[in-house]
Design goal:
Radius of gyration: 24 Å
Strand order of the largest sheet: 1-2
Number of strands: 2
Largest sheet: 2 strands, antiparallel
Length: 249
């Protein structure tokens, strides 16, 4: 559209500059305030839920946090975690404990795909994506696999929703910013640093996220096998036979 208004001789010089100016202005004036509004709304909502009840907060955050990641709105939660780690007396964050385990739930979904898939290309993606999610980066698992197989993302979110209330019930905190299995030793029960029961509670909470994912995928019969050539050609052959029969009539 911009290029149609500018002579072809100078398009290569001015079109990129104008596009950058227009897009930047739209981001600052239109999209920026909208995103800030929703981010503030999410941050206030999470603070209110945590204050109201930790178990209920585990249910809500555990189920919905990775959905925020899809839209980039999870960055509204990061400042809350940083503030909790900086301001609280022992430097603990309850939200980070829940968020950390939602990462493991998404990693469990990618791991289920790696286990069940017979397609070498899918397995090649699922292995590194599982490791990445277990280390706290869920985007490769979600964008590359779990969202492609929609039920995997849903069951991973259910796994987070199942384990979230248990995280609150056991009063699990995190005493640092590192998430998922990388921050495993940072899971401690409030007021009891470096105690065995804090680590045990973390194991129980995280295990409850992996188990529902694999059980649900098992009973739903989610298949990841690569279709053979005969399977792919069967619908085409059926349509051809139908057309031939219609012409004969």
């Amino acid at each position: 559209m911009v290029g149609a208004l500018i002579p072809a001789v100078i398009q290569s010089m001015f079109v990129p500059l104008l596009e950058i100016f227009i897009v930047s202005a739209l981001i600052l004036v239109v999209f920026g305030p909208i995103v800030m509004f929703f981010s503030g709304f999410i941050a206030n909502g999470i603070n209110s839920i945590i204050t109201f009840n930790y178990v209920f907060a585990g249910l809500v955050i555990g189920a919905l946090y990775q959905s925020l990641v899809i839209f980039g709105l999870h960055w509204a939660v990061i400042p809350i975690i940083a503030a909790q780690l900086a301001s609280s007396g022992g430097g603990e964050s309850r939200i980070n404990a829940i968020v950390s385990a939602t990462m493991i739930a998404q990693g469990a979904g990618a791991l289920a795909i790696w286990v069940k898939s017979k397609n070498p290309r899918i397995r090649q993606l699922a292995g590194p994506a599982t490791i990445s999610a277990m280390c706290g980066v869920t985007e490769p698992a979600m964008y590359g696999l779990n969202l492609k197989y929609g039920r995997v993302f849903i069951t991973a979110s259910i796994g987070g929703a199942v384990g979230g209330p248990l995280t609150g019930l056991f009063n699990v905190n995190m005493w640092g910013f590192t998430g998922a299995f990388v921050g495993f030793l940072l899971h401690q029960q409030a007021g009891h640093r470096l105690q065995f029961h804090g680590i045990l509670d973390s194991v129980l909470g995280n295990g409850d996220r992996r188990l529902p994912v694999h059980l649900l995928l098992r009973f739903q019969g989610v298949g990841f096998r690569r279709r053979t050539r005969s399977q792919e050609s069967a619908p085409r052959q059926a349509r051809t036979r139908g057309q031939t029969a219609a012409q004969g009539e």
